[in-house]
Amino acid sequence: MLKQCLLPLAVSCIAFSGTSNAFKLLGPSWENGNVSYDTSFPGATPAGQNWSNAMRQAANKWGDQVDGLNITFTDNGFHACAGYTGAFPEDGNQNASGFYTQACDEAFGTDVIAVTLSRSFGSFYVESDIVFNSNESWSVYDGTTQSALDFRRVAVHEFGHLIGLDHEESNAAIMAPFIGSIFNPTSDDLNGARDIYSPATGGGSGGGSGGNPEPELRASLEEPSASQAASGITNIRGWAVGTNPISRVELYIDNKYIDNIPYGSERPDVGQSFPNYSNSEHSGFSMIYNWGNLSPGQHTMEIRAYDSAGRLETDSTTFNVHAFDNSFISDPTRVEILSDAKITNGRTITLDEVRADGKTYKVVLQWNTATQKWDIAEIN
Ligand SMILES: [Zn+2]
To answer: How wide is the angle at C-alpha 92 spanned by C-alphas 102 and 123, nearest 5°?
Structure first.
């Protein structure tokens, strides 16, 4: 594990060599420039600015100015120390941050106000987390440093480490090892980030010249289909294929990570469409989901398919949840149709009076092409 000891108030906590007077790189980078970051920081400054927003603003100061660096945010409550201490088991390499009294498994060094903890495999980061010292007082502001530390500029500095930048002592830089009046990435900082993620404009390393064609990756979320009414317990399903084998398919509902969807079921149709892709005839994913777990109304769903090289492809949809108040009625005698069915347009069945677990509902059934059956389209 790499530990960047960050922005101490008085002492530099990381020694580095080299005499170059420009930005310095730590070595690893995020594959394809994709960084997913969980910003579920509870709480706000005394003035009411919430930490989560400040964290996102800090990250975007890099993401908005560096081509090829794609930062996305989640709000899943992941713990920054997951996997670093016995108290918090590994959470699947999620990048997160938080205020803690110590730097996960050990004390903050003297005057250290934040630490970025990173793990990499080969030349790519696997996980990186930022821990802020909760023994300090914090606020959010621009300009000269006050007694309460500016959380956002520290976050910009830490995010600089997270994307692969080391400390810079010669040029004006947010990556200076000490906190100061700089609160944005400077041109030297941005040149460093562009050197990693936008080789075409930043010069330097990388630069996909010649060689093999770029690997491809495709993913499709088929069910629930767009604007489908989701009710009861049904399938989430689709397929993912690519030049490289698929390593996992993640499910997100309303931007919250839910689970990995089992992958590898038979899809002869996809195999025929993409005969040159790895194992495309076994490219299906599916899992059972109880829509009653979600509140009635509109929701979004996204699947994220990753290949063996860490490339990412996504597909998403919006859908409406219709559910009885009780999401799982275990006694079948608690469900009863009390009125005659009305048929409209040959495909829609309306039941004006359905008793379900002691309450009366109007239920509309509609033919669903995706599932090949009559599904509940409305519960009122
Ligand atoms: Zn630092």
So the answer is: 85
